[in-house]
Design goal:
Number of domains: 2
Strand content: 15-25%
Helix content: 25-40%
CATH architecture of the largest domain: Alpha-Beta Barrel
Strand order of the largest sheet: 16-15-14-13-12-11-10-17-18-19
Number of helices: 16
Amino acid sequence: MYCGPSELIKEKIMQIKTIEEDDILRTSNDICIKRITKERSIVWNRFIPKIIFANNDTIKLLKLLENNNRKIKELSLLKKHLKKLFSHHLLLKSNSKSFRDLFIEDSVKMLNRVRISIYNKHKLKLPYTNLTFLNSKCNFKCNYCISKYVWKNIKNDLTTFEEKLKKIFKIIDKFFENNNVKTEKGIHFNGGEILLEFQIIKEIVKYIDLHHSSQKVHYSINTNGSLITKEIALFLKNYSFRVSISIDGYREFNNRTRRYKNNQGAFDDIIRGLELLNKYFPERIKSFQGTINDFDNLDFEKIYDMSKYGFQSARLGVNLLNLEVKSAKEFAKKHMELILDSYDKPLIVNDDYLDYFKNAIKYNNIKFTFACNGLTNIGNNILYYNLDKDSVHTICSFVYGTQVSMKEIDNDIYNRLISDQCFNFIKNRINQFFKICIDCEIVGACRGGCVTSGIDSFNNKNEAACAFKKEAWNIFLKYLYINKYSERIN
């Protein structure tokens, strides 16, 4: 959106100190201005980044009202202009609280929402709606894998297959207990590489089919695809699994990072698994997810050429763990180039942070949230059970520090300790968020990021992630200006 006063009122703007009006307006202390050209800038409120394209006269007006509350005389054109600035949260009434204060206040409300959404005194308020089975083992040794950084060392006393199943079935029974059969439940499988536990997956689905057949259930699985056989493909198809495949791109690029423990590249086995799924599933797998560890010799055209396997889109994130700030900025430039260049290609590349940006520029109100709902679990009520650790937690599957041993809670998946671990993590993350992010120009667009690309799983600052996001935001703004809110972005 362009905003700039017409030639007819430029003189009046310069005389604004002498104009009176009932409404007293002032410029928010939370605005950010980025000059795009000699005549144009992009302006936004960092807590509600609904951007506006402004000419130099608009910038002068904002600067003029920055430290001086002024009553504005009713001039139709000027009033319309000021209303637009006000609606984009660049101006506020002189007696209003700052957006910073409102943002902080809403964080307290959000924390209370978390507290009351889970427990009422000592009883779980709502039953779990989703149950995710995880494992920590994998047949790959990807050098960027977050699991090696965050798994909590909990000893698993379940030594036999039968013991594991017995425990799992009790969890399933408790999960479905007293549930409304009209409410569809989600059963999900993730890793590690969860297909290492295919026999357990089969037993879980068979048990639900036999003992909870009246309950509506949907299944999903996230896999690296290398272990898929005809049997597995048919099983997943028969139970209408939603399947997500992880692959880092074309053969040469994928095999640099996504490898077996003997260092052999896994691309051919992943594609073989993909082809089996596409053979037996009624619809082809149309997207994949992966990680870019570095951009050395990355061939964009070969990424787009992954469409020959039936892919239409890819979510390719950048490994921002243990990365230098300088490298992070360069990675942001290359990553945004890859994404924006893909918009007219047969395969579209995207990543979560760009979705955050796209959503952020549509915000109209102050509301504190993290970038990912998985960090607050509000409305999802997900329970994660780790098959290898015999532990549970109720927050993002990458935040393993909130795990509670089943032995510690006497196998009660509704034990208050699970919720308390989750709540304490969120409370700590909010405290860290305001120490790390409150003064950042993209606080409203980034919101601390995902634990893999922002404040990390231990609630520590990731300098590389911050540098990456700021650089990406600047490129995003330039793209919006050049394309005047491209349909794809908006």
